[in-house]
Structures are given as structure tokens and as C-alpha cells.
Write a structure and sequence with these properties.
Chain A is of the alpha+beta class. Chain A has four helices and six strands; from the N terminus they run ααααββββββ. Chain A folds into three domains: 72 residues, Winged helix-like DNA-binding domain superfamily/Winged helix DNA-binding domain (Arc Repressor Mutant, subunit A, Orthogonal Bundle); 25 residues, no CATH class; 90 residues, Ribbon (Umud Fragment, subunit A), CATH 2.10.109.10. In chain A, a hairpin with a 2-residue loop joins strand 4 and strand 5. Chain B is of the alpha+beta class. Classes of the chains: A alpha+beta, B alpha+beta.
Chain lengths: 197, 430
């Protein structure tokens, strides 16, 4: 007594199964599929999975486990949502960008530094944060830079006015510094990472 | 004569490990920096340290004598590997044909890229050198010539931060200054052999007629002879290294030990490590060598031919134990053990002989497959053999030699001892 499902209905079931991975980061087990689709026996699930596989809607690996086709860990970049019009963002799925790609422009020239001082707290950089430093970038006026100034290292805004260069903190307790002898810029801050948990 | 029928570049990082340390910690720039604290000998010395007479392999107590202000650091291979990968990636921006020759050396084929870069080979090489310095934070030395052997002579010619171009007409000049033993691939034995023919410099060698090369030399040296004469015969191999001739694992421990069980455990752990690597590359060894190094740096070793090619420690322990019993002398303090798996063959090419027990071997294969998958999930040596357990009695190095690299000491939130971010962390107080 087998009931043949239409391709549309099969696709719907495949989508339900795949959508499980969006929150779990992995494909469901057979018993989890059963719970999702209201099938009580694993045998029924197995039959359905076989049919979906035959239609190319799901894939399994050598061990018979379902394979997740998209990498689970890269975050999805959704289309921008305009106020008032809930956009079907799902359909605007762009190419995905990993957090690494988002934060690091020059992967060969970037390194991390742990922040210990509070001189840039006004710019949202707090003690304990990690900053991403890019060595390859040329420092421009207004960039946050890592600089060696008269033998000591510091992180400040770079202010250029004509020929003079000033390092300015984002905290009223610190006064702007003018390099007396030499100023070496080790890199430009391109991002800050703070992990709460 | 065309000056560059081929343009091969060789890149060699200057004092690589020490340079990596100086790159992440600018306070170390300009100071004598030495890595290899955990080994008790110099792994790498910065140019400041070399200027004071420190050489590779020197013992650290000697270093402290001749250079008391040296900064001696434990090796941080993870950071070095990251910088190594970055070096290769930067090189690939200039040409797709890059051979990752070792952790701090690479060959690259620049032939035909002048038009693409709108620059001469010399200025391409120069911008490679400058980009490395700007992005990595330390310098490299570069040689460009017609062949790999000549390019390598070029990168050695001026160091550090050097750039040497050896075109066809410069070959003679460079070779005439170079003792034949300094050529890449010619060791002391071959140099001594060539000396019997009156060959002292690389030029003497290159000037010999082809009939000499054919008659007196074996293939690798004939290839060097051709390369010295500007004919490129050694290709730039762009695929990552897939096969190994041999796999060797050595570990020093401090303090030196006279404890039989412990020394054997160290050896057993090296065997486990070597086998893990062999299995990762689907190789099996036909020969097993082991070495014990005494506290006074004297080595004893032996070599065992195996009944059948294998990469399973359980099959090798008998041989290992037999070799160990032959070498081990009670009461002698040992500081290092080494295991070498040699005559490696592809595992798929192994056949059972008449005397093998296929069922037992299959069972072992399944067992080690399980061990490997557990390691992949929970870390290396999650499951280990009893023989290597005593290595867990204490850390590999007692006292200040056991110091962890700063990367391992200050993990950032979310990192574990086993998994760290793949990006260098600078050591600057800001």
C-alpha cells in the first residue's frame, strides 16, 4: 500500500529536513527526521530518504549519513531589510562571506594584538579586546594606528595636518602626543574582536 | 645568447624562526634572539646573535657564555608555520608556480611573467622581496637565475635581505668563487670525491666535459652539472609534497634519563608519531632505524629490516624493543631518541606474503583506523600504547626548559591548548 508522493511534495520534505541544519549546524538523524515529518517508524524515514536521494534532493556519505551541502559555519549575509516591507531575505541569499573574510582584508599581512590600555575606549576599544592590525595598509588621516613613538608602543588616532603628525587618544584622560624624534607605524587597525562567552 | 631562457627564483627567509619571533615582538628587534630553548641547542639565531658568534646547533650554555644578553626562547612552531604559509601565499600573488621546498624556502618559476608584471625579472624579484618585508615584518633573501641550483647559489650569495640575479653571463663569475661543497645537493662525501679529480670550485666542476659527468657521476650529480651550466633540468614542483622517502621523529627530553622504561617510552612515542604521519600519507615502511643520543651527544643507532611493510606500531614494537635492547646501556644518561621509518611504499601496493596472517592484519588496520579517528576528534595520543605511557610521568622538559611559548601561555578566550587561531598574535603592550 504505497502512496507515491509528487515531486513538489518530496521537495517540501527535503527542504524541511535541510532546514534543520540551519539551527543545528548538522543534518538530522533518522529519528529526528521522523519527529520533523511525523513519521513514527525509522523504516518509513529510510524509505523516504532513499527516494529523496534518488531524486537528487539529498546526499549521503559512505556511512549512509546525510551530507550537508552548504558549509554550516559560514554566516549568511542576508539582503538588507527595508522598514515596513519584510523582504523575503531568504531569496536574496548572496554568496556567503566568512567572518574571517569580513574582518581581514589582507590575510597575509594581518595579526592580532591584545589591548591592555583604555586610551581608545571612546572608539569602542576596551582593555582585553583583540584588535586586527594590517601591516600592508598605508596609514591615512583618521585611521587608528599602532605606532612606536620615541621608543614606546601605542594605539591612537592618526591626525595629519600639513606636515605635522599627531597621535590622539579617544579618551579625555590622555593628551595628544606629538612625536619628538621618530614615529614608526606598525599597522592600521581594521577591526576589533570581543568575545563575551 | 638569451640571458634568461628560464627564470627560476629561490627565496630563503633570513634566520626564519628568530625572525618570526622578532616580527611578533618588536622589542626583540636589533637584539640577539635564539630559539630552541626546549631542545638545549640553538635552532635559529637572529643576525644579531650570529654576529656574536652564535651558530646553529650550538649548545645553549655556550651561547650564554659568549652572548650573555641573548634572548633565548622556546620554539613556537605554530606561529612559524603560519608565517611560512603566508610567505608562500605572497609568492603566489606573483606566480602560480611555487614549490614549497621547506618551511623557510621556496622555488618559483617566473618564466614568461615579464609582460604580465610589466617589469624585468630583477624588478619582479625585488618587489617580491619588498612585499615580504612589508607584510611579514622580516626580510628574505632572493636569487634569480636560469636553474634551481643557480638560483639557490644566488639567494645564498648576499644575505640577509639580499637580491642576486645570475644571468647567463654572470654564471662564471659566481661559480669561480664557490667551493664545490657549497653547491645545493653536493655533500662532503661527493666534494671529497670530486677533489680527487682536481675539482675545487663550482666552476671547475661545471667546466668538466659532459663525458666526465656521464662517466664519473650518478644521475643526481649529472643533473647538478647540467643546472650549473644553465640548462634547467630540475622542475619547480608545484604540488604539495605527497610522498616521503623517509619519516623521522626525534625528541629531546630534560633532564636526561637513565631510566630504561622511560627512555624506551620516549622511543615508542616517536614510533607512534612517525606511524601516524605514515598512515596520514598512506605509506608503509620497510625499514626501521632507531637512535639513542647520550647526554654527551654521542649517538648509537641500528637499523632493522621489516618482514612486511607496515605503519602499525603494534607490529613494530618487537623490532623496536630488540633494537633498543641492543643499544641501551644501563646507567648511561640519554637525552634524545629518534625513530626513522624508511623505504616507504604506498600502502595500497603492499601484498600479503604466504606467511602473513591476513585476518590479523585486517583487524589491526581496523584498530588503527579507529585510533586515528579518535585522534582526529579528541587530539593526538588520545589512545596510546602502554609502552609510551611513561612519557606522561612528567612534562617533556623539566625546569625552565619546559617553558611554553608565549602563544601557548596566553590563550585567548575560546582557544584551547589544541586549537589556536591561525593568525599571529603580536606581543606589543598597547
Amino acid at each position: 500500500m504505497s502512496r507515491e508522493l509528487s515531486p513538489e511534495m518530496l521537495q517540501k520534505r527535503a527542504d524541511t529536513i535541510t532546514s534543520f541544519s540551519r539551527t543545528a549546524g548538522r543534518m538530522p538523524t533518522f529519528s529526528e527526521i521522523g519527529a520533523l515529518l511525523g513519521l513514527r517508524s525509522k523504516n518509513a524515514v529510510a524509505k523516504l530518504v532513499r527516494r529523496l536521494e534518488a531524486h537528487g534532493m539529498l546526499r549521503r556519505d559512505a556511512h549512509g549519513r546525510l551530507v550537508l551541502d552548504r558549509p554550516a559555519r559560514s554566516l549568511r549575509l542576508l539582503g538588507s531589510v527595508e522598514a515596513g516591507f519584510p523582504s523575503p531575505a531568504e531569496e536574496e541569499l548572496a554568496d556567503t562571506l566568512s567572518l574571517d573574510d569580513l574582518l581581514i582584508k589582507n590575510p597575509q599581512a594581518s595579526f592580532l594584538l591584545k589591548v591592555s590600555g583604555d586610551s581608545m575606549s571612546g572608539a569602542g576599544i576596551l582593555p582585553g579586546d583583540l584588535v586586527i592590525v594590517d601591516r600592508a595598509q598605508n596609514a591615512k588621516n583618521g585611521d587608528i594606528v599602532i605606532a612606536e613613538i620615541d621608543g614606546a608602543w601605542t594605539m591612537k588616532y592618526l591626525k595629519k595636518e600639513g606636515d605635522s603628525v599627531l597621535l590622539v587618544a579617544a579618551n579625555a584622560r590622555y593628551r595628544p602626543i606629538q612625536p619628538r624624534q621618530e614615529l614608526k607605524i606598525a599597522g592600521v587597525i581594521t577591526g576589533v574582536v570581543r568575545k563575551y562567552q | 645568447m638569451i640571458s634568461f631562457p628560464r627564470a627560476i627564483l629561490h627565496l630563503d627567509a633570513d634566520a626564519f624562526f628568530a625572525s618570526c619571533e622578532q616580527a611578533v615582538n618588536p622589542a626583540l628587534r636589533g637584539r640577539p634572539v635564539i630559539t630552541g630553548k626546549e631542545r638545549g641547542i640553538v635552532s635559529a639565531a637572529s643576525y644579531e646573535a650570529k654576529a656574536r658568534g652564535v651558530t646553529r646547533g650550538m649548545r645553549l650554555f655556550e651561547v650564554r657564555k659568549i652572548c650573555p644578553d641573548a634572548v633565548i626562547l622556546p620554539s613556537d612552531y605554530e606561529t612559524y608555520s603560519i608565517f611560512s604559509l603566508r610567505m608562500f601565499e605572497i609568492l603566489r600573488r606573483f606566480t602560480p608556480d611555487v614549490e614549497e621546498y621547506s618551511i623557510d624556502e621556496a622555488f618559483a618559476d617566473l618564466t614568461g611573467l615579464r609582460r604580465f608584471h610589466r617589469a624585468s625579472y630583477e624588478s619582479i624579484a625585488d618587489s617580491i622581496r619588498k612585499t615580504m618585508a612589508a607584510e611579514l615584518g622580516f626580510t628574505v633573501s632572493v636569487g634569480v637565475s636560469l636553474t634551481k641550483v643557480l638560483a639557490k647559489i644566488g639567494s645564498k650569495h648576499r644575505k640577509p635581505n639580499g637580491l642576486t640575479i645570475i644571468g647567463s653571463r654572470d654564471i662564471e663569475e659566481h661559480l669561480s668563487q664557490l667551493p664545490v661543497g657549497k653547491i645545493w645537493g653536493i655533500g662532503p662525501n661527493t666534494a671529497a670525491y670530486l677533489a680527487k679529480f682536481g675539482i675545487r670550485t663550482a666552476l671547475d666542476f661545471a667546466r668538466r666535459p659532459e663525458s666526465f659527468a656521464d662517466k664519473a657521476l650518478s644521475k643526481p650529480y649529472r643533473e647538478i652539472w647540467h643546472e650549473l651550466n644553465g640548462r634547467s633540468v630540475l622542475p619547480v614542483i608545484t604540488e604539495p609534497k605527497q610522498s616521503y622517502q623517509s619519516i623521522s621523529k626525534a625528541k629531546t627530553f630534560t633532564p636526561p634519563s637513565t631510566d630504561r622504561e622511560f627512555v624506551f617510552a620516549q622511543l615508542a612515542k616517536n614510533l607512534e608519531n612517525a606511524c601516524i604521519k605514515a598512515r596520514r600519507h598512506n605509506l608503509a615502511a620497510q625499514r626501521l632505524s632507531l637512535f639513542l643520543r647520550q647526554q654527551d651527544f654521542r649517538d648509537n643507532g641500528c637499523e632493522i629490516k621489516l618482514d612486511r611493510p607496515t605503519s602499525y606500531p603494534a607490529e613494530l614494537f618487537n623490532a623496536l624493543h630488540e633494537g633498543f635492547s641492543r643499544l641501551y646501556r644501563p646507567g648511561t644518561p640519554y637525552r634524545q631518541t629518534t625513530v626513522v621509518l624508511a623505504d616507504l611504499v604506498a600502502e595500497s601496493a603492499c601484498q600479503y606474503t604466504l606467511f602473513d596472517d591476513p585476518v590479523r592484519i585486517e583487524k589491526m588496520a581496523r584498530l588503527y583506523k579507529a585510533v586515528d579517528s579518535l585522534s582526529a576528534r579528541f587530539g593526538k595520543h588520545t589512545v596510546q600504547h602502554c609502552a609510551s605511557l611513561p612519557t606522561r610521568q612528567h612534562t617533556q622538559h623539566a625546569g625552565d626548559r619546559g617553558d611554553l611559548s608565549h602563544r601557548r601561555k596566553d590563550l585567548i578566550r575560546g582557544e584551547t591548548a589544541r586549537r589556536c587561531l591561525g593568525i599571529p598574535i603580536g606581543k606589543i603592550q598597547i
